[in-house]
Structures are given as C-alpha cells and as structure tokens.
Amino acid sequence: MTTERPSQRTPNRQLAALIAEAGFSNAGLARRVDQLGLEHGLDLRYDKTSVTRWLRGQQPRGTTPALIAEVFTRRLGRRLSAQDLGLDACAPVYAGLEFAASPAEAVDIVAGLWRKDTGSQAELRKIAFTPAGLVVPSRDWLIGRPDERVARGEAVPQDGQARVPAQLRPVPPAPRRAPELASVDRVPGQRVSQGDIAALRSVGELFRALDHAYGGGHARQALVRYLEHETEPMLRGSYNETTGRRLFAAVADLTRLAGWTSYDIAAHGLAQRYFVQALRLAQASGDRAYGAYVLVTMSRQAVYLGHGREAVQLARVAQQGVGGGVPPAVQAMLHAAEARGHGVLGEVRACTASLARAERALETARPGDDVPHWARYFDEAQLADEFGHCHRDMQQYRMSAQHAERSLQLRAPAFARSRLFCRVVLASARLGLGELDVACKLGAEAAQAAAEMRSARATEYVRDFERRLEPYRDAAPVRAYRDRAAALSAAGAAVR
Fold first, then answer.
1. Can you tell me the distance from the alpha carbon of 80 to that of 386, in angstroms, rounded to the nearest whole number?
2. What is the DSSP-derived secondary structure letter of residue 120?
3. Is there a contact between 272 and 297 (Cβ–Cβ < 8 Å)?
C-alpha cells in the first residue's frame, strides 16, 4: 500500500504542463507508473486520485518521483528528472536503463548493477523486460556526441583539450589459458596497465567459451563477481586516454557477456540492463562498431521475446550508427539481425531482402580481413543458421531444412548451444515437411543436449518443438520421443 506525504499547498504546475504535453489522463499516468513499478518488482497501487494529489502539491514517497520521471522520459523522448516535474529529488529508481551523460556516471551505474547482481540475484530476476526501455538508449547512442575525455588521474594536455586517438584497435588477446580469477586488492587510484587490459580480454574469452559449450548459467555469477571485484577498481584507477579507451572497450565486452548469460537463463530484464550499460561503455571506448554489436545483441533478445518491430529498429539503428565503414562480416551480422526481426513479423519480402544483403556482404569477406574478435563467429555456418531460422519463421520449411543442415555441417563442436538451436530448427522444418520420424529423432538429440546445459533458452527451444508436435501426439514416433524426454527430465531432476 502506497502512502504520501502531507499536502504542500502549492499546485504543481510543472507536472500539469508535462501531463498536457504527453497527452496523459490522470488515470493513464497512474496506470503507467504502476506498470513501470512492476518492471522493478514493486507492487504500486496508484490511481487517478493519486495524480490529483500530486497536482495539488503532495510529494510521492520513496523512488516514485523517479518512476514518474521515467514514464515521461519514455513518452516524450527526452531525459527528465524528478525536479523537472516539480517533485522532490530522490535516488533514481533502480533501473539500469539510463544512458549515462558521462563516462564517470556510466561507471557508477554499471558498478551498482554488478553489486546488486552479486548481492541479490533472485530479486533482479523479477525485473521484467520492457520494449519501451530500448528507445532512449539506442537513440542516445546514435545521435550522442562522443566523449571527449575518459582519462582518469591523468593531467590534461597543456592546450586544455583531451586528445582522442583517431583509431583505437583492441588489444590482442593474451595466449589461450585459463585466467587467474582470484581477487588481488588494488590500491585506490592504481594505474591501469596494458597487462590489465589483456587479462580482461583473456577472461572474456574464457567465459565466452564456457557459455558456448555449457550455457549461460554455468559461470554467470563468477563473471559478475569478477566484474565487481576486479573490473570496477580498474575503472576507478588511473589511466591515460589511450589506455582508458581500451579499458572501457574491454569492460563493455565483459558487461555485454554478463547480459548475454543473463539472457540465456531467462533473466530478461536484468539482461536488458546489462546490454544498455554495455552500449554506454562502448560509447566511452569510442568503438562504434562494437556499439552496433551490442545493439545486435539487444535485437536478438527482442526477437527471442517476440518483439519483432523493436528488433528491426535496433538493427537499423546499428546500421545507421556505423555506416559502411565496417568489415564484411560485421555488415552481414547487421543485415541478418534485421532479417530475423522481419521473419518474426512474417514480413517475407523484407526478410528475404535483408538476408540477401547479408549474403552479399559475407561473400566479399577475404581470409586476411581485419575482423574484430567479437565478429569472428559470424561465418558461413552462422549465416546458414540465420537463414534456417528465418525460413522456419516464414514457414518455408524446405529452405529452412537445407540451410540448417548446412549450418550443422559447418559449425564447430565448441558451439554446442548454437548447434542445439540449429538442430531444433531442422527438426521443426522436417516436421513441417511431414517427416515425423526424422523430426522426432532430431528433437530427441536436442533434448539430450539441452539436459546437459544450464540454458533456459536451450530448454525453451526444445519446448517449442514439443508444442509443434502436439497435433501428432498420438503417433508412435511422438510417444517414443515423449518417453525419452521424460526420462531425461527425471534423470536431470535426480542429479539436481
């Protein structure tokens, strides 16, 4: 039950003006505040009478002023604070969807996210994904000015201008070995070295490999603890412009990975917040191409959750943000992401056109191309996978099966989860072609692989296939499949 402070007799004209500008009714504003509260696990009970009291001068308690400000921010497309609404200042509602105004603020926000995640994972899992929360960050990334200075604890050049290198290449990863994750206390303000950044890159490679092979739930919490205990002190250390940009790039990559592993365990609201913060850190690094990759990641989550329109918009923002100055593999990735959104929406012509652009881009790739480490996965196997998913979504099952089979032939065994997804796509395509025996065999193989992973997405892919089997539930191959799936489930429960 929400309560308010005693009335302050001065009417709130600022709030009244913004309500009129936004076109809200009192009941509509109250409903949106309640809905936004649910995104953050808050059970609010505001109504039109509550808004009337705010207009008369009463001040909402707790973080409600920040919630109200966020409602107007989303509606009007510009950042508004509680004070802009004539409300008392308060600590911002714990959202993590803010696109920070400065690198220092970005560090504060993402560090708070890491700390809250390590402290109360269950609470964060209650936070809902919100499509509206994608608008402001993606827009701010697209049109925002580059950060002029990220150096910390370093003297500004005598001319008073921070010098940002024209091109900042990522530090080559350290040799492949398991990085040392034990915490080593850093002295406050300690200088960040190139070795520190190489270590961050190596840690990222380790956790990425674990995620591909065993699912996001396998080591997600260890990654978040590393970010809190090792990475935050680096961000608050001392570094010049070049080192700072590389540091922000490495931390953006780890933060995106924390979001990816959260997405894989179905903590979708939490994942969304990690992606937004990774996008802001990428902005501080000066690496526009990596920012586009984060937007592609956000687009993929939107596709998975059925928000095709938002997925298309994110992919297009990514394309606009980098133009044509990226390697062919990155161009292909951006067009494929758009295609997936069109596929979910059933927009056949637009999906086919985007797939064709992705294919043409990848055809221009050459073995010696300088491809960023994060884009090297996007090869012929991945493109075939994208085709398979899109044709399945458009119910073009023969083409889906052809591309899914090709992807499985080309995909390395280390990408176990991706192979599982593709196998389910192939099973669904074979089912759509009436090949029930083959479909159930492929589905059983996927179910076996899913049972050995800690991945909610893997489980959901298998469940989606099982829903497609429902019209054939009395057929012998389906009964055999269900018996095998039930045995796998029982065995998994016994192990747990």
1. 39
2. -
3. no
